[in-house]
Amino acid sequence: MAILNIKNNFELSTTPIPNEFIDFYMPKANGNFVKVYLYGYRFSYSSQHNLTLKEMSEKLDLLESDIIKAFEYWKECGLMEFEWNEDDIIHISYLIPKIKEEKKVTSENLKKPVHIQLETRPNYSPEELTIYMKNPEINRLFKIAERYLGRMLSHNDLKVLYSLYDWLRLPLDVIELLLEHCISNNHRSMRYIEKVGLTWAEEGINTVEKAQARIKTFNTNYREIMKALGLNDRNPAPSEIEYMDRWLNALNIPLEIILEACKRTIIQTQKPSFQYIDSILNNWNKNKVKSIKDIEKLDNAYIKKKSMQNTPSSNDKNKQYYSKPSKFVNFKQREWDFDELERLEREYLSKQLSEER
Hints:
Elements: E1 3-8, H1 19-25, H2 31-43, H3 53-60, H4 64-76, E2 80-84, E3 89-94, H5 107-110, H6 126-132, H7 136-149, H8 155-166, H9 172-184, H10 190-202, H11 208-228, H12 238-250, H13 255-269, H14 274-286, H15 292-310, H16 314-323, H17 338-356
């Protein structure tokens, strides 16, 4: 049985809750995480040091695993030091809350995905899910999903939904936005919803603000690309989304450049081809294209190079001149019979001698 060893860094005899925690950290945290923080905080000012994880679980009506998740969350927030040693003792030390300056979410932030290691989704049993549904917030999530999907949730549906919260660590309000986003785009498959959830988790979309910015990108940039390809009558397929995500986020290519590649693809192939667009954009990216003017420079350089290849140089002209056959080449030379010439010469000389006599 794990024993919780909780202490604080404050020299006070009461259990005060810092205003920084109430004003800044508490509003954004999961309700169960707040319960764990406050209950543990109360014991950090108590002489009782033999509180067990099981006792805390029963007192708060939470799973022990949920309590551990809460400790890990507050550790990430910088409000707690949390360590579980080999003696099955969990050492917890509360720290003074410090307000950190929040980074403003911009489209530039979203273009830098956070790569995380994701293991296989846990296989939750029906009994486990029944326990989790006692959590009012989880139960509310399931009801919202039923309303969005317009049907009763199967055991597999419940597993996927709970895994978004438990496995991928997406906040419940972010999961609600994810459901609304997928279903509003006519994607009701849990497999599709889970795939979008995985993408969001890898991109670090863990706040409502980030989720709204991501949805806005999907509903504007993606739609513009689909429209440029004449595909505005349907939603993008998962493979098409992967291409567009790569162009917009991984390669950080401006939308106008992508639309120009779409235009050239249609002209060249007479059909929408994401693979062909990808080859164009990869080439432009290698040449550090950032604007339409950069594309025009590449086009002009290509045309100039092409014309130089088709225009013969002075050396080529000389080669052509000297390689032309001379008019004397085709002259058919006579074949001389030297014996016959010698015979004629002898006859000529004999004739001359006879005349002189």
